[in-house]
Amino acid sequence: MNENIILIGAGLGQMQTNCYIAGNRQTKEALVFDPGDEGYRVMEMLEKEGLELTAVLLTHGHFDHVMALPYLQEQKPGLPVYLHEDEEDVLREPSLNLTSMFGEPVSMDADHLVKDGQILDLLDTEIHCIHVPGHTKGGVCYYFKEQGWLIAGDTLFRQSIGRTDFPTGDTDALLSGIREKLFVLPDETEVYPGHMNSTTIGLEKRTNPFLMQP
């Protein structure tokens, strides 16, 4: 296992959305997942760790996961942004990314549209893209297979799941996607959700009330 790869996180903004930074201490490259707000804090965390921001990866397009993106793009012109291909219009359309509901409408675009099952070769490790629609139609989890980490966004929480009552949500798709695509991962896989504390795949299989089999 590449022991140079690290993962740190912080809750940002009034929604306390978990933003994660994955970095390679050897190459000094870093990826930011879901920069929800307070972009200056993201840059401070990177500076503290001696890391250089090279890309942003979004689990989905909701406002509380993306509002620091313009700030980061100002600090790093040409910064690549990754998003699932089915989520492109969610990020772009204020009525879908919920900025029109919770504040000033904002439209954003991604540079790289990933597919289900695609493997990204970043940070000198492999990051697997797992499409799990339901919270939004293009929700994607990022699985660091070698490290045993899953950046889950608002798909799977500790003993809960993402809400499905926003535009493009689908409860049945979310539940089946979690069971079929996430619960097949090793039980010891650490799950890092968009809100609240981390958990493991094994714990959720045993105790998540939304997903326990009758």
From TrEMBL:
Secretion signal span: none
Q: Which SMART domains does this entry report, sorted A to Z?
A: Lactamase_B
Highest taxon above the source species: Bacteria
Top EC class for this record: hydrolase
For this protein, the record's InterPro entries field holds: MBL_Glyoxalase_II, Metallo-B-lactamas, RibonucZ/Hydroxyglut_hydro
Indicate yes or no for the key word Metal-binding: yes
Keyword Zinc in record: yes
Identify the cofactor(s): Zn(2+)
Which CDD domains does this one have?
metallo-hydrolase-like_MBL-fold
Q: Report the GO molecular function annotations.
A: hydrolase activity; metal ion binding
Its Enzyme Commission number(s) read 3.-.-.-
Positions of transmembrane segments:
none
Q: Which UniProt keywords apply?
A: Hydrolase, Metal-binding, Zinc
All residue ranges annotated as the Metallo-beta-lactamase domain in the record:
16-195
PANTHER family (alphabetical)? HYDROXYACYLGLUTATHIONE HYDROLASE GLOC (PTHR46233)
Name the chain's protein. Answer: Putative metallo-hydrolase
| Organism annotation | Anaerostipes caccae
Taxonomic lineage is: Bacteria, Bacillati, Bacillota, Clostridia, Lachnospirales
